[in-house]
DNA sequence: TAACTGACTCGGC
DNA sequence: AGCCGAGCCAGTT
């Protein structure tokens, strides 16, 4: 499927109004401290489904329909790579947002990722 | 209806 | 140290 138009879909809207896996992901993502990052796997692990990291990323894709908005730019893959930058419209939109939070990005990759890494299962008290 | 895809991750070679 | 295959869940074709 080629470039899809940024047109909100109706059925996805239903999901947002219903508590689901998406809501959980967004809820965790929203609690990421400013200037910190986390990975899809970490969120998935926190939710108890660490093998479903794909769904987390996929839920991020739907974060566009989330209210309030989800800082999806603070979520990267396990090596700190901005794997989702493509979904931010502009090619470097994600990087720009990260740099705005003093997060250095080099070669589409978060610098000092291990230091900035924020593990919800470890830092977030349930 | 079945098969494919994906903003991922892990383990094996 | 890098490449490959498998597992995961839901939506799309």
Outline of the structure:
This protein is mainly alpha-helical. It has helices spanning 10-16, 21-30, 40-46, 53-61, 93-100, 113-116, 120-123; strands at 38-39, 75-76, 105-106, 109-110.
Describe this structure as you would to a colleague.
This protein is mostly helical. Helices cover 39% and strands 6% of the residues. The protein is built from seven helices and four strands. The chain has helices at residues 10-16, 21-30, 40-46, 53-61, 93-100, 113-116, 120-123; strands spanning 38-39, 75-76, 105-106, 109-110. Strands 1-2 form a two-stranded parallel ribbon. Strands 3-4 form a two-stranded antiparallel sheet. Helix 3 packs across helix 4. Residues 1-9 have low confidence and may be disordered. The structure holds a DNA duplex (13 and 13 nucleotides).
């Amino acid at each position: 499927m080629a470039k899809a138009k940024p047109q909100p879909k109706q059925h996805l809207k239903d999901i947002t109004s219903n508590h689901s896996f998406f809501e959980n992901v967004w809820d965790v993502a929203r609690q990421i401290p400013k200037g910190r990052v986390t990975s899809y796997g970490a969120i998935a692990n926190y939710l108890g489904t660490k093998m479903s990291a794909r769904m987390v990323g996929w839920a991020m894709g739907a974060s566009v329909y989330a209210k309030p908005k989800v800082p999806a730019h603070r979520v990267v893959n396990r090596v700190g790579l901005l794997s989702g930058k493509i979904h931010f419209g502009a090619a470097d939109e994600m990087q720009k947002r990260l740099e705005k939070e003093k997060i250095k990005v080099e070669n589409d990759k978060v610098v000092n990722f291990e230091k900035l890494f924020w593990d919800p299962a470890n830092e977030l008290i349930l």
